[in-house]
Amino acid sequence: MQIDVKIKKLRENAVIPEYATSGSAALDLRCAADEPVIIPARSRAAVPTGIAVAPNDASVVSIVCARSGLSTKHGIALANGIGVIDSDYRGEILVSLINNSDTDFTVEPGDRVAQLMFMPVLTAKLTECDELDSTERGVGGFGSTGVK
User: Fold this and answer.
1) Are residues 94 and 49 in contact, defined by beta-carbon separation less than 8 angstroms?
2) Per residue in 121-146, pLDDT tens?
3) Helix, coil or strand: residue 68
4) Is the dihedral of CA 76, 81, 87, 88 positive or negative?
5) d(Cα 29, Cα 25) in Å, to the nearest integer?
6) Closest Cα partner for 114 from 64, 73, 74?
C-alpha cells in the first residue's frame, strides 16, 4: 500500500529520506544541522531534519520512531517515545533525542537519527456512559497478567 506524500527541503543540507532496504517499514531521517549536535550524558536535544511533509490523505499520520542501533549501542532514544506528526502539520520535523548513557554523544550532519513511517488513523466517536462492558481482565492493570 502506498500513499503520495509531498516533501519539502527546508535546509540546504537536508537529505530526502529513503528506505534502507526493500523490506524497510520506515524511511531514514537524517540530521540536517549546520554543525555537530552534542547530546550531553543524561540530556536531550532537538535534532533538525530539514524537511517538512504533506501526506495527500488526512487520515494518515507520520510517526517518528527510534533507530534500534542507536538505542542498543549508544543509549540514544526518542525523548518522547514516538513522535506524532499530524497530517496538517507543515513545519520542520525535529527529532527529540535523549542520551541515556553516561557519556556525551555527537550527532554529525547527515547521520541517520530516526525513522519515519506513515500509518492510517482511526478517529473515535466517543459516547459517555455510566458503565463499560465487563471483561475477563476487568480493571487489572500494570503487571496483572504476570511475566511468565
Assistant:
1) yes
2) 999 999 999 999 999 888 888 877 77
3) helix
4) negative
5) 13
6) 64
Give the span between the Cα atoms of 14 and 44, in whole angstroms: 21
In contact, 104 and 39? CB cutoff 8 Å: yes
And the C-alpha cell for 124? 473515535
Predicted structure pTM score: 0.89
Measure Cα distances from 17 to 54, 84, 86, 148 in Å. 14, 17, 18, 40
Cβ–Cβ < 8 Å for 29, 11: no
Residue 60 C-alpha cell reads as 494518515
Digit-coded pLDDT (tens) for 36-59? 999 999 999 999 999 999 999 999
What are the domain boundaries of the chain? 5-120
| CATH class assigned to 5-120 | mainly beta
Q: What is the dihedral of CA 114, 115, 119, 121, to 10 degrees?
A: 10
- Of 84, 6, 118, 117, nearest in space to 51 by CA: 6
